[in-house]
Design brief:
The complex is a heterodimer of chains A (973) and B (419). With 973 residues, chain A is an alpha/beta fold. Chain A is 73% helix and 8% strand. In chain A, helix 10 packs antiparallel against helix 16. The radius of gyration of chain A is 96 Å and the shape is flat. With 419 residues, chain B is of the alpha/beta class. Chain B is built from ten helices and 17 strands. In chain B, the strands form four sheets. Chain B has a six-stranded mixed sheet, covered by helices on one side. In chain B, strands 5-6-7-10-12-11 form a six-stranded mixed sheet, with no helix packed on it. In chain B, helix 5 links the parallel strand 16 and strand 17. In chain B, helix 1 runs parallel beside helix 2 and helix 7 packs antiparallel against helix 10. The chains are: A alpha/beta (973), B alpha/beta (419). Chains A and B meet through helix 3, helix 5, helix 6, helix 7 and helix 19 of A and helix 1, helix 2, helix 6, helix 7 and helix 8 of B.
Amino acid sequence: MRIDRVVVTRFRGLHDLDLEFGAGLMVLEGPNEAGKSTLMAFIQVLLFPTTLTATTRVVGSVDISVSGRRYRISRSGARATQRLRDLDTGESLDLAHLTALTGQLDASVYRNVFAFGLGELQSFEALTDAAVKERLYSAAVAGAGANASRASRALDDELNGLLKPRSPATTLGQLAGELTSALNAAHAARGEAANYSAAVRERDRVAAEAEQHAVERAAAAERVGWFAALLDAWPNWQAGAEAAVELATLEAEFADYAEGTGAGPAPAVWLAHAEDVKGLDAGLAAFEQTAAEVETRQKELSQHVSDLRAGLLALGPHWTPKRLADFVDGAQWRARAATTRAAIEEKTAAIARLEGAKAEAELQVGMAARREDAARDERERLLREPLLVQALARILPELPEGDAAVEPALARLTEHTRERKAGMAYVTDLSTELAEARRARAQANEQLQAAAVEAGRWQRWVGWALVLCLTLAAGWLGWRSDREYLAAATVGVVATMLLWPRWRRAGPGAAALRELEERAAGLHAEENDLTATLQSALAGLGLQGDARAAEVAAASREAMELDAALEAAARSGRDFGRAARETQGARAAFAAHAGNATKLGEERTAILNAWAEWCRASGVPDNLPPDELPAFVARIERLQAVQSAFRDVDAKLRPAMARAEDFRAQVGTLATALGLRFEPEAAAGTVREWAARARAVEARYLELEQKRLDLQAKVATALRDVDARFGTRVDQAREALAARDPHGWQASLTVEEERERTLATEARRLNEKTGALTQKLEEVEASADLATQLQTAERVAAEARAHVRRWVVARLAKGLIDDTLHEYERTKVPEVLRRAGHHFGTMTAGRYVRVHLHEGRELRAFTPNDDVLTAPDLSRGTFEQLYLAVRLGLIESFSAANVALPLVLDDVLANADPERAARLAAVLANLAERQQLLFLTCHPHTAALLVAQVPHAKHVVLPQLAGATLALDDGSS
Amino acid sequence: MRFRFAHLADLHLDTPFQGLRANRPGLAATLRDASLTAWDHAVTACLAAEVDFVVIAGDVYDGAEAGVRAQLRFRDGLARLAAAGVQSFVVHGNHDPLAGRWSAISDWPPGVTVFGHDEVTSVPVVKHGQPLALVHGISHARPEVTENLALRFQRDSSFVGYQVGLLHANIDGRGGHANYAPATLADLRASGMDYWALGHVHVRAVLSHERPLAIYPGNLQARHVNETGEKGFYLVDVEDGRASASFVEVGLVRFDTIHLDIAGLSSVAEVHSALTTEARLPRGTALTHVLRATLHGSGPTHSALHKAGEAGLLEYLADVAPAGVWWNEVRLRTRPELDRETRLRAGDFVADLLTLSDARRPNAAEHVATLVAELQSHPQLRNVADHLGLEALIDEAQALWDEAAIAAFDLIDAELAEG
């Protein structure tokens, strides 16, 4: 297949490029970024449309020739389909045809085989010997990329990682180990689980054994209890038995005692009557007391009798016991005596008082007489006063003589004086009033004047105003001449004067003015009245009408003096009168007193007589003064008390005597019952004696009874104790106790205790064991170990299976690769190397003539003399040459076997020196004869070299293109 | 007359999960207890639904693996049922046959009937003095029972009422299960039972809708990565002799496999996204989901995916997994975007490789067998060879061969691409 023409309308950075290609070598020269690679990419995209991505915009066409036929592959736009057209027939063809035209090659194969870039030669320095070998080898193996052997080695590594014969550190080795552990653990867990039933049985067996031991131990404990109880009960039991024996003895003793010894009543008898005896004994104290009481009372009684007798005698003959007993008037007598005494005393006192008054009265008489005399003297003196005499003389024709006439005269005078005084006062008042009225009138006049002035003033103003007005009016009215003015004014003035009074009256203050005038007039009238009245009053007094105040005052003074003298005279008169009366009174009093005293004396005497009479009648000694009567009565009463005391004692004495008798009778009865003698007098002592005896007997009985009770109690205790200790087995216990074998019991107890201890220890041990086994069972029951281990094992197994599978796949894959490689080497590589050798020879100018694949995939070159060149010996340049040679050999061989597509070389001569380059160029030229060869370079000298070497080579210089250049499309952009 | 009963089977208590590779401690604990918890939940659900009796159709645990914990847990569940007055009927299957197996249970709670293996016995279900139904059952005696036990079941004509047959068996030779106690649907019909409570097949299925209603409830909790979907048991309501069954999900851990065709996906990110979206889809009521992704098909992401590798993809998915979702495995079964025909004709090394691969493919089993033999005799793997599923690899030889070819191609193509 051959490319004839390429039209790039638009592809990445390329625009409007139209290139004609030559059949053989076509040199495309252009600097970097010129778009060489882009061009190659374009071609590739059109030739192998499957490499297109959706976004690549491709517009253009490629013309190709295959087996003499020409075709055009064109495309417009990214999504547009590719079109294939037969240029000869113009027929559009199916794209499947294209695949046929391109030799059914995959784009990648095309790339790997037919595209050969400088990159493949790069970094030689970095290559190890092994890498160099590998590179060379890979050059020979078409379609395997860098190296199929590398793939094989990768698989090897993976396989070794998975599994190696002697190293368990591999994945599967480790997994196998894990799996084994898990399986073992599961097995162990299973085994443990399988033992479960057996373990349960074992646990139950041990538990049963423990149970058995517990039962036996309980039995032993019970027996221990039995013997211990027997031992415990033994003391009491023993005590009980002893007590029973003692009891029997005691009963005999008791009976004996009760019978008595024969002397005196038997104790039984004593006991029978003990209560009675004790009763009597209890009453003994009372009896003795009673007896004593009787004695005492009897003594008292005789005392009272003698007292009574003596007292009555002392009272008097009148007094008998009966009278004494009947006497109830004590209070009355006392009262009478008191009354009498009081009366007498009163009288006596009254008399005494009277005597005193009498004496006093006598004194008074004397004094009163003296006073009377004095008063008389005074009076007479006063009557002789000159003033008084004069005054009297004034009103009376003659001076009174004698006391009888004096008084009325004085009375008259007094009256007269009084009148005068009144008149004086009246005058004074009038004067005062008059003065007042004058003052008022003066005031009113003043006011009037003031008002008049005021009114006048006003009226004057009004007047002048009027004048003025008139004048002005006159003026206005046309009166211009002075004369006329004067006339008018005159008229005005005259008018004013004439009307002055009227104005005065008629003015505003005229009314008031009139009023004031009236008032002033009134006051004046009043004043006159008063003056008249005063005049008359003065006249009445005998004074001149125009008497002045001093005169009036003197008259008044005189009147008062007179009044005083009159007063004094009257007073003295009264005094005298009084004194005279007093004297009279005193004398009368004296006389009264004397009379009373006598009367009272007589009364007293009467009382005394009456008293004496009464005394005689009542049996009181008649010369007994009343104030001594209470004492007498008291004696009576005392005696009465004695009498009643006597009666009391007597009353008490009788029952006491009866009681004592009764007691003695009781004792007597008891004595009979007891069969003893009895002396009533010695009752007390007898009773005591008996009581003592009875008590002694009782005490003895009690003692014996107590003993009996104690012993009985002991016996009962022993029985109860056994009952309590042994409960239902009491009969058995009693039997055992009756055997009386405490030592035997002790021995048995020891044995049983020992047995119990042993059993307890064993039971404990078994219980612990049961507990431990139970715990273990519970652990097993709850244990998820088995499940966990099984799950782990399963998981590891699954993991291992996956890796085993992977191992198998890897082995198969490796086998495929290795075998393919082997086959490839066997069948195809020789041809490649043959051609490679040829090319290498050309390149090395015959130095090396053969290239051979040695073991271990090592390429070696040989000289004609069979000197070998191994990879480590290669220099860079030689390496490149060899590589190139092998590569070309592969291309040739492939093309020959399959299809010859245009070869694309990208500046592979860049590193060669001119001589080498020339030789290489020769090789290329050779190749170009059989195959279209596109050589891309950016070196003009390389281009020139090639063009020189190859006839008919086409040389195209590509201009610099704007836009990015991309590497040869590898389908991954 | 109305009553309700629960039909459970294949509890497989405390047996390990198979096919789980990921070692995650949190997940491990959940998984370890999942079967037991599922049983507890099932009992609770039965009590909540107020069932009148419960039938359990075998494989309660794996006989050889039965730990004490599992057995006691089973007994405790039955005790709970018994305490509520619910009778339980149990038959044993091939995994937990009656004979040759140690039992940690010394006595069963009241109301529990464990059918013997000698003959079919019948036990009535009595509630409040009234007989509700009659349950016939027989257990497997040995791990490999080959007799058709279904033939021994006959309807009891003296009992008027609903009759239930309880049996662990393989009906109509269902594939993927050991063919123990084989029987046919016709055998079931012939027995005259009203209801067949079956066990053994882990995928639930209703074999027959009309009388007799024959159901495999499936196991209570998935225990293999291949056992996907919801797991649980059936509640059967019977009214006047007519039955209707409803499924109750109790499985705590649920497995699902996500198959993804990479054809339409253009980047690894898109693959991630597609898988994580799938992971987030709600799946039943289980609390824990264990997912497996199988990528297949061919697309541009093939080489990138293989470069990341299954481990790399798994790690990524695990990192972004939502709560309750665990990624167990990623299987890359993709093919490169390869025009095989074209490539074969290219005449290069790759073409040679493909040619050789095609040539040898028919003998893949032999190649694999050779490798298996090598593994079996390998000193490090000898002890555990039985657990590595080596025989199964031979069965997969063709698939393995294809994988190998793709792996080889990928490696070389990768090298080519780099060049």
